[in-house]
Each structure stands twice: as structure tokens, then as C-alpha cells.
Amino acid sequence: MITLRAVEATDLDEFFSHQLDPRANHMAAFGAKNPSDRGVFDHHWQDILNDPKVTVRTILSDGDVVGSILAYNDGEVPEISYWIDRSHWGMGITTAAVGQFLEEVSERPIRARAVADNVGSIRILERWGFTEIGQAQGFAPARGAVVDELVLELQ
Fold it and tell me: Which residue windows are transmembrane per the record (predicted)?
């Protein structure tokens, strides 16, 4: 059973352990340059949790913390982002969590970005009705390189 709830302080330890996975960092691409720096991680998460323009939830699978999902608005429309522990990829958890989150965050349009080679994330977003509206390039700290991104939008 997949559920979402408000982030609790103890969730941050789980989120930190998730970001230590090199393969997950490569796929996410825009994570921290040094994912093992707990100080940077804690500062980043305090910014998220203290920002009233951010809606953030912990993703639970059968009661276990498996990831996070959030929407932030630093431009013209909100943007969704998520991170799932790699040991839970391919189980439908992210798909279910995105669907639940989109019911809670009903503002439309809403956008998402995915590195062009992150096929799994792109499929999840398309499953919920997101369509590609553009492409961008950006420096991905986790890859140490400029990457191509798809910009997707849900009306």
C-alpha cells in the first residue's frame, strides 16, 4: 500500500541514505555534487521544509519510508520532483505516489523535468498525462556534465 504523509524529522535520515546510491544519483543528475555531505543535505532540506511555496510529502510503501515527492514554484508554474530509493524502482510505487500527489496538488498546469535518458521517470510522468513541451540543457552536478532534459507539462 502506497501512502503520502507530511515529512517527519526522522524521514531525513532515510532520504539521506537514498541519495548515497551512485546509480540513483546518476539518473537524477541534479542532486548534490557531493551526496555524502550531510551538512549540505540538511541545509537543503531545511530550505525545502521552511518554504511555504513548497508542498512536500514522504512516500511510504507498506509503512516504510521509500522516498519523497514535492512541488515547488519558483517560476510561472509549479514543478513536481520526486526521489525513490533505488531498491523500490520498478514496483509501481512512484507511479502510485505521483498519482496521489497530483490529486493533492491540483494547480494546473504543473511541470516536471527529467534527464532525457531517464526513461523510467519520463514514462511515469507520461502515464499521468504529462506531455513534452520543450527541451533544455543544464549542468548536472551528479554527472559533472551538461545534460539534455525534457520539460513536461500536465494541463
Answer: none
Instruction: Provide the CATH topology of domain 2-154.
Output: Aminopeptidase (3.40.630)
Domain ranges of the chain: 2-154
What pLDDT score does 111 carry? 98
Any residues with CB less than 8 A from the CB of 50 and at least 6 apart, and which? none
What H or E segment, with its residue span, contains residue 129?
none
List the beta bridge partners of residue 71: 55, 80
Radius of gyration of the CA atoms of the chain, in A: 15
Quote the CA–CA distance of 86 and 67 in Å, as a whole number. 9
pTM of the model: 0.95
Instruction: Give residue-wise pLDDT tens across range 6-51.
Output: 999 999 999 999 999 999 988 888 888 899 999 999 999 999 999 9
Sheet with 2-6: strands ordered across: 2-6, 55-61, 64-72, 79-84, 110-115, 145-154, 131-140
Name the amino acid, one letter, at 152.
Answer: L
